[in-house]
Amino acid sequence: MTTQPRSAASGEVTDPEPLVLDGVVPYPRDLAALYREKGHWIGRTHAEMLFDTVSRHPDGTAVIFGEERLSYAELGDQVLRLAAGLRARGIRRGDRVVVHLPNIPIYLGLVFALFELGAIPVFALAAHRRSEIEYFLEFAEAKAYITVDRQGGHDLGALAAELRQSIPRLEQAIVVSGDGGSSADTDELLSHAPLDHRRRSLPGDIAFLQLSGGTTGRPKMIPRTHDDYLYSVRESNRICGVDQDTVHLVSLPISHNFTMSSPGILGVLEAGGQMVLGPNGSPDAAFPLIEEHRVTQAALVPPLAVAWLNSGLKDRYDLSSLRTLLVGGAKFSAEVAKRVRPELGCTLQQVFGMAEGLVNYTRLDDEEDIVVSTQGRPISPDDEVRVVDDEDRDVPHGEAGHLLTRGPYTIRGYYRAPEHNERSFTADGFYRTGDIVRLSPDGYITVVGRSKDQINRGGEKIAPEEVENLLLAHDAVHDASVVGIPDDLLGERSKAYVILRQGADPEGVGAVTLKRFLRARGLAAYKIPDVVDFVAEFPQTGVGKIAKRAQRASTAG
Ligand code: OOB
Question: What PANTHER family does the entry give (predicted)?
């Protein structure tokens, strides 16, 4: 299929051909046509979305970070300079670029510069370390890696230089300043004359690769198109009341799907609102920003919402501008949810979403009992939701079962993962979320459990297999099993059961040794087991598998 040139007559602007990226499962043609016909997919790219807002509100403030303020016009200018700089370094449409940055303004400039070029950002979390980053670079065959010089005592600049040497395909390692200031690389990139903004990618192209929380040895990559993702952003804005007057506090990791699009930074940019970038969601970081900038909307994971509610600082700052608090990423208990309105004076919106697609919200005008006791309902009338038993048969309404979903912004397959896709999707394209839910007659979802082998540590997802594999690389380890155990604040924390090799000295190899070993392997800190227990054997199921359920239960309480 080819597309018509957009303004061939002028000879200047010519639409590119659709991008062909290997290892992506496309939406079925008839459904894609339907989503367009219904106005879900409007045929706009992320770069076009931003520049539409730039032309509507050039003087409006887009981003606030410390003393720094960027208007939409300034952000647009920065994007086009960076795009010129990145192009001069050889970055082209379809190239994958691993973006590994904390909550700093240049994140927006760089990501939109990549969008402008039609290059494909791979969104690493700031907490990721060598183990994850090396894998992302190799798996996505990235041409460039963008990171900060230092973060949390880690010399990422040195890591970047090292990876640039060891991975032949990696042509560029771009290092920006971790405190949001300038760096040699950003100064150089910004010194280019701005590129002209024009269509360099198509709305049906893969816009970026998000990362799955994962249940397997390595995180899977999630290919999202401009069309599908921006649909979820526009609808999120409508559902969450985001407009030009919104002042949104960004305190979760900026590249997480929740922060990006529910309604997140993209929601703000689409609506022409303001975002305030904070370093993290702790009350002492967030409350002064809310007071100073009259923040109207914030998004948190449940443990941070608890920290806000229990903080003595609550009465020391003026939080009266806050209208809505979005809480998601992990189950928010109804008992705590009940306290949000009376104690913070704002409306709670629960968000149950996934980087693979489907996002559910409680609505701003929902009854209080729905807001506190459900995780909301889907964004779109065309989100299909099924709740099934172990044999994929629909369970009676109101009973708990596996949540399956497909729809106008849910992927049809992970990137380059045909075998995994066989298991994660039904033959007719439903994504197996791995969540156990109940569905109310009016379509509200309550999450009651999980069937996937994943630990949800306060919203941060850990694939036990990834940690187990690294533990097995230690000489003294015979076998390892990692499970989630209940935790009052985080919901779950992680515990590793370890069987040492015969002859290994349990005095010499302790919990500290193994944690240090994982850290030295470059595993992100949140994946390092909170507890390590040495045992002689693992409980077994009838078919000889490790009985993880028994391991979780034996540590309950
Ligand atoms: C969000 O995205 P991911 O990809 O990090 O994690 C998705 C998984 C879900 O399958 C579910 O297991 C869990 O996180 N989850 C929740 C939840 N929100 C996410 N479990 C219970 N209650 C909730 N409210 O976490 C994410 C993506 C977009 C928006 C919000 C969260």
Answer: LONG-CHAIN-FATTY-ACID--COA LIGASE, NONRIBOSOMAL PEPTIDE SYNTHASE PES1 (EUROFUNG)-RELATED
